[in-house]
Amino acid sequence: MNVSTEHPIASIEEVKSQRSKRIGYFFYRVRKSPLTLLGASIILFMLCVMLFAPWLATHDPNAIDLMKRLQPPSAAHWFGTDEVGRDIYSRVVFGSQQSISVGFFVVGVAGVVGTLVGCFSGSVGGRIDGLIMRLTDTILSVPSLVLTMALAAALGASLFNAMLAITLVRIPYYVRLARGQALGIREMGYVKAARTFGASRWHIVRWHIVRNALPPVVVQATLDIGGTILVAAALGFIGLGAQQPTAEWGTMVATGRNYILDHWWYSLFPGLAILITSTSFNLFGDGIRDILDPKQRGK
Amino acid sequence: MDSRTVLSIKDLSIEFPLYEGTLKALNGVSLTVKQGEIVGIVGESGSGKSITAMMTMRLLGEGSYRVRTGSIDMLGVDILKASEKEICELRGGDVAMIFQEPMTALNPTRKVGKQMVDVIRRHQRVSKGQAEEIAAGLLSDMHFADPEDILARYPFELSGGMRQRVLIALAFSCNPKVIIADEPTTALDVTVQKQVLMLLKKMAAERKTAILFITHDMAVVSQFCDRVYVMYAGSLIESGSTRKVLHSPRHPYTRGLLAALPETAAPGTQLKSIPGSVPDLSKLPVGCAFQSRCSQSSEKCHQKPALAEAPQTDAHLCACWHPLTDLEAVA
Amino acid sequence: MTPTPILQMKDVHVRFPINPDWLGRPRQHVHALNGISIDVARGDILGIVGESGCGKSTLAQILVGLLKPTSGSLQLAKQDAATRSGMQIVFQDPQSSLNPKLPVWKIITEPVYALGDRPSQQAMMDLAKSLAIQVGIRPEYIYRFPHEFSGGQRQRIAIARALSTNPEIILLDEPTSALDISVQAQILNLLQELQRSRNMTFILISHNVSVIRHMCNRTAVMYLGQIVEVGATLDVLENPRHPYTQLLMESVPKLSDAGFSSDPAEKTELPSNIKLPAGCFFKDRCARATSGCQTPQALVTGEPRQTGHQVRCHLAYA
User: Fold this and answer.
1) Do C188 and B262 touch (CB under 8 A)?
2) Of residues B45, B267, B277, nearest to C214 (C-beta)
3) Which band of pLDDT confidence, cut at 50, 70 and 90, is reported for residue A104?
4) How far apart are CA B174 and CA B172, in angstroms?
5) Which of A155, B226, C56, C287 is the most buried (most CB within 10 A)?
6) pLDDT of residue B88
7) pLDDT tens for each residue of B237-249
8) Distance between CA atoms of C163 and C131, rounded to whole angstroms?
9) More confident residue, B302 or A16
C-alpha cells in the first residue's frame, strides 16, 4: 500500500530528547518563578534535615539534664533548652520527622483514596454518585478543624490517631475535586470511544479517568501538605497529637507557652519551623499549579 | 495613499516569544482594502489569517507579541501607535467585527433589544425609542419577519444562524466603513450560511462598507469576495481578483490546495494531496516557506520571494520564483 | 440481485425525555430519530448527509451502541454483539478522541485489550506497529504521545485504532471536518485505499456534500430525524428529487460559479423536534407544498426500481 508519512524518521533517542525537553521546560518555568524556587529549596533542605536528623542533632533529643533547665541559646545549646534541660535544637531537628511524615502520609492516603472514590463516583453517576456526594457534603458542612479535633479525641490522643483523623477529614476534598474532573473527562471523545469498544467501567476509570484527573489532584496535594503540617501541629498543641516525650513541633510550642514570657526561645524555634515548612510547601504548590494549569500554559 | 483606501497594512511582521525561540506568526504582510470592497484572506490553520484580522484592531493581548516591522493604517489611524482610547473609538464605530462563534459575542443574561439599544446609543446621540426603531429596522433588513419579537428575546432563544444575523445587524448599526469578519459562517449550516452571506453582501453593497473576510473555505471565497489574498505560514503568497486566483492560480501552493478539494476531483479517484505538512512557525526555513513541499523548488527558493508592489491593487500577484503559467494551472 | 445486508436498521425511533414534572415523569420528549430504516451491504460506503439537528449524531450513537433505540431494531450480520466488535468508530475531533496520557501503541490496541483478550505487551506493540504502517504512521512513532502529532496524524491513529479489531463496518463521524484541506485529502485517500484493499464497509456521516460525493456509492439525506432521500450518490446529489435535497445542493458554495445565483431561503429554521409537525416535516419551508403534504410522507421508490432511489415526497415522481 502506498501511504505517505508526514515526518522524517525519528529514533528512540529523539523520543527521549522530547521527554527531556519537557522536563527541561518544567525546570525552566520553576527557575522563572523565584518564589517556587525558594519553596522548593526549603522543602529540599527540610527533607535533608529529616533524613539526616541523627547526624545533625547535637544532643539526644530526649536526654534530660535538670541542671540545665531553661537555658537561653548558647554555643552548647543553639536554640536553648526546655524545662527539663533537653536541647531544643535537637528536638526541632527530630521533630521534622514527625511533622513532615504526617504531611506526606495524610496527603498520600487521602489523595489516593479520594481520587479513586471521586473518579469512580463521577464516572458511574446515578444513585451511587448521589450517595457519595451527600456523604461528602455532610463531612464538608462541618468545619474541618472542629471535626478533626472531635475525631482525634474520639480515637484517643496519639500521633497515629491524629494522622488518621486528619486523613479522614481530608478525603472528601479530594473526592470532590476528582469527581469534578471525572465529570469533564467522561464527555471526552476517548472515553466515548472506549465505551464503543465495549470496555468495562473499571477499564475506563483506570485507563482514562484517573490518568487525566491526576494533575489537579497533585497540585492540590502539594498545597495541602503545608496545611496538614499546621493541623498536626495544632492537634499537638491542644494535646490530641503526639504525646510527651516525643519531639513534635506543635507539642513543643504548647509546652513552651507556659514559659513564654521569660523564656521566649522555647516556643519560638519550633514555631518558626512550623511556619517555614508550611509556607514553603504552599509556595511550591502555588508554583506547581501555575506551571501545570493548562490555562496558563501556551501550546 | 489612495483616498479610497480604508485599510492598508504594510510589511507587517509579528512574532510571539516562546520558551525556545520565537514563533514568527506574520512575515511581511502587506495588503490594502478599498472602500466598498470585499476582500478575502484564505489559508489553512496556522497561516496567520486570523492574527492579521486581530491585528487590524489590535485585539491580541498586549505584551504577548512583538511587532518586528510594519504599520497598519485603518481609516487614517496608525493602529500600532494609536492610544487605547482612539482604538476604542474605532471599534464599534467606523470599524465593526463579526466573529465565528455568535453565542459568546452576546451577553446571555440580557435581551437582544437592550443590547442593541446600548450599542447604538454608545455611538449615536439618539433617544431610547429612536434606538429601538433603528434596531428593528436593521433586523428587518436582515430578513427577520418579526423584529419586535426578536428584540424581546434572550440570545439563547435564537438559533446560531439567527444570532449571527443579529450580530451582523449590530455590526451595521453604526454605519461602519469597514467590517472585519473572521470565519463568520464556519459554524453555520450551508443553507443558513448562504442566507447570512447574501444578506451581508447586500447590506455592504447598499452602504458601501468594505469587508475583510477571513476564511479557510475556497468555495465561500469564490462566492463572496471581489479580491482574495492567499496566506501560507505567515506570508501572503498570492493575491488578485477572486476569479483569477481561484481559476488560474499561479502559486504552486494555491494550485495544490484547489486540487486537494474533493469537489475538483472525479468521485472515487485519488485526491491530489500536498505532501508533507505546514512548517513549524518557530523553525521557518530561509527563503520560501513552501519550498520543502513544492515540486517546483530550486536553489533560488532559498531566497524569500515577495509579492511585487504593483501600481494597481487588483493585479494578479504571486510570491514565487517559479510561478505557474495559466496553461499549466488549468491542466 | 442485491447482496445480503450486513447491517439492517428497521424503523428506529429515538426520543429523549425532557422537562420532568415533580414526580420525575417527563412532560415532553425530544424526537431525535423518527423512523430510520436502512440496509448496508458489504463493501458499501454509505454517506449520511444533513444539517445540524437532523439526527446524524444520534444515529451514530445508536450504531455504535452508545444509545439504545426507543423502538425499532438494529441488526449486525456478524452477531457477536456482546463484544460489538463488528463496528468501530472514528470521531470528528482527533484532539479529544485520543487520551493524551497514553502512548500511541496503547491507544491503537486499546479496543483489543478492552475486549478482554490480553495479549502480551510485545504482541500488542507488534499489532500497533503493523496498524501504524497501514495508516501511514512510522512504526517508531508508536512510543510517542498524542500531543506530538499533527491533527492529520492523530486522525490516522484514530483510524488505526478502529482497524485493530478487524471490524466489519467502520463508522466515520465527520472524520475530516476538523482538518485542513490538504490534510483532508490525505485522510480521504487513506480511507479509500483501506476500503479497496480490505473490502471494508464504511458509514460516513458528514455535513460536507463534496466529501460525501467523493467517497460514497450510496447516500442518504436526513432531515429532522428522517431519511428524506436515499439512493446512489450521483442520483441523489446530481438529480435531487426531494425539495430539501434540492435546497441543500443549491446552498452549497461552489468553486465554479461566481456569486450565489438564486435568492436565499427565507426560512432557514428547523421546525421543533419536541412537537413534531403534522404531515410532511419540510412543508413549512417548501415552495411546492400542497394540500397533499398534510399527511405523513412515506419513502416513494422511483423508476427504474433497481437503482433504489427513494424519496420521502409524494410530488417527487408526480
Assistant:
1) yes
2) B267
3) very high
4) 6
5) C56
6) 85
7) 999 999 889 988 8
8) 7
9) B302
Residue A108 Cα distances to A115, A144, A175, A287, angstroms: 11, 18, 13, 20
Residue A11 — very low, low, confident or very high, per pLDDT cuts 50/70/90? Answer: very low
ipTM > 0.95, yes or no: no
- The partner residues of A87 in beta bridges, in order of sequence, read A81
The answer to whether the beta carbons of residues A152 and A160 sit under 8 Å apart is no
Mean pLDDT of C295-316: 81
Q: In chain C, which residue's Cα lies nearest the Cα of B44? A: C180
Q: Identify the residue whose cell numbers are 421543533.
A: C272
> Cell 508519512 belongs to which residue?
A5
Contact with chain A for residue C81, Cβ under 8 A: no
Which residues of A are less than 8 Å from C166 in CB distance?
none
Instruction: Provide the grid cell at A14.
Output: 529523539
pTM of the model: 0.84
Closest partner residue to A25 (CB to CB) among B19, B273, B275 is B19
Per-residue model confidence as pLDDT tens digits over A224-260: 998 898 898 888 888 888 887 888 898 888 888 888 8
Nearest to C307 by CA among C45, C11, C2: C2
Name the grid cell of A268.
519560638
* Across C32-61, average pLDDT: 90
Residue A12 has a pLDDT of: 47
Which residue carries 469533564 as its cell? A184
Q: Which residue of A has its CA nearest to B64?
A: A298
Contact residues of B toward A, CB < 8 A: 18-19, 273, 275-277
What is the C-alpha separation between A127 and A8, in angstroms, rounded?
A: 52
- Domains with residue ranges and CATH for chain B: 5-225 (3.40.50.300), 245-267+278-330 (no CATH)
- As a whole number, mean pLDDT of residues B40-59 equals 90
Instruction: For chain C, report the end-to-end CA distance as a whole number of angstroms.
Output: 28
Q: For residues B12 and B30, give the distance between their C-alpha atoms in angstroms, rounded to a whole number.
A: 6
Chain A residues with CB under 8 Å of C64 CB are: 196
Enumerate the residues of chain B whose CB falls inside 8 A of the CB of residue C253. 190, 193-194, 217, 219-220, 222-224
Q: Which residues pair with C26 in a beta bridge?
A: C20
Angle among Cα C306, C307, C311 to the nearest 5 degrees reads 115
Chain C positions touching B274 (Cβ under 8 A) are 182, 185
How far CA A122 is from CA of A118, A184, A208, B5, C146, in Å, comes to 6, 9, 13, 58, 25
Which one is predicted more confidently, C264 or A279?
A279
| Residues above pLDDT 90, as percent of chain C | 40
List the single residue in A with minimal CA-CA distance to C198. Answer: A1
User: Which cell numbers hold the place of C70?
Assistant: 426507543
* Angstroms from C197 CA to nearest CA on chain A: 8
Query: What grid cell was written down for A68?
Result: 540545665
Which residues of chain B are within 8 Å of residue A1 when distances are taken between CB atoms?
Answer: none
Distance CA B133, CA B140 (A): 11
Query: Is the model more confident about C114 or about C238?
Result: C238
Query: In angstroms, rounded to a whole number, what is the distance separating the alpha carbons of residues B97 and B167?
Result: 9
The confidence band for B228, taking pLDDT boundaries of 50, 70 and 90, is very high
Contact assignment for C182 to B273 by CB distance below 8 Å: yes
- Domain ranges across chain A: 40-296
Cis peptide bond N-terminal to C304, omega within 30: yes
CA torsion B277→B279→B281→B282, rounded to 10°? 120
| pLDDT number for residue A3 | 41
Pick the CATH number of A40-296 from 3.40.50.720, 3.20.20.300, 1.20.1300.10, 1.10.3720.10: 1.10.3720.10
pLDDT at A118 > cutoff 60: yes
Instruction: Give the nearest partner residue to C89 out of A3, A193, A208, using CB atoms.
Output: A193
Of B18, B19, B277, the CB nearest to A6: B277
Please give the average per-residue pLDDT across B296-320, as a whole number: 76
